[in-house]
Amino acid sequence: MRRKTISYAKYGYIFSIPFVLTFLIFSLYPLVYTSIIGFTDLRGLMKTDINFLEVPFENFKTVLTSPLFQKALFNTFFIWICNFIPQMVIALLLTAWFTNRRFKIRAQGMFKVLIYMPNIITQATIALLFYSLFGYPKGPINDIFLALGWIDAPLNFHLQKWTARGVVAFIQFWMWYGHTMIVLIAGVLGINPTLFEAAEIDGASAPQIFFRITLPRLKTIVLYTLVTSMIGGLQMYDIPKLFLWGGPDNATTTTSVYIYNQAFSGSYLYNRAAAASMVMFVIIAILSVFLFFILRDKDSVLQRKRERTMRKEAKARMREVAL
Amino acid sequence: MKRKLGVLLCLLLVIGFTLPLVAQGAQEAAPKVINLWSFTDEVPKMLEKYKELNPDFDYEIKTTIIATTDGAYQPALDQALVSGGADAPDIYCAESAFVLKYTQGDASDFAAPYKDLGIDVDAKLKEADIAQYTVDIGTNPAGELVGLGYQATGGAFIYRRSIAKDVWGTDDPSVIKTKVGPGWDKFWKAAAELRAKGYGILSGDGDLWHAIEGASEKGWIVDGKLYLDPDREAFLDMAKMMIDKGYSNDTRDWTDAWFADMKDAGEKPIFGFFGPAWLINYVMAGNSGGSAPGEGTYGDWAVCEPPVGFFWGGTWVLANDNSKHKDVIGDIIEWITLDSSKTGLQYFWANGTLFGPGGTKDTVASGTVMEMSDGTLDFLGGQNMFDVFVPAGQFATGRNKHQYDETINIYWRDQVREYTAGNKSRAQAIADFKQQVKDNLDIASY
Question: How far is residue B207's CA from residue A36's CA, in Å, rounded to a whole number?
Answer without folding.
Answer: 45
